[in-house]
Task: structure prediction
Amino acid sequence: MSEKDLDSSNVDLLVTIFGSLALALGLLLFLVQEDGTSPVNVAWLIPVFSIVSFVLILLLGSYDPRRGGSIAVIGVGFSSVFSFGVAYDVLINDVTHGGYIESTRIWFGG
Result:
């Protein structure tokens, strides 16, 4: 690989990283724009991004020039932005007021 190709590859990777962070921040702000909605309410999406990324890497990884690396970067970027949003809300804004938030879901009925 020539130095020009390497620089182009690095620029493409930076565009992917910052693009995914910007999209994730936009999605987070869109989801919490309602009154009284907190990033804690959408914290369940944090592992979903990783799971979806894994499935996309399995299905489309061979078509990606980085062998799925770009998809992984996007998934990690989305999970990171949502994690920082939840951490900020809990630690700085004290959304839990010293308590905890419980969310119960029935996975299997029986």
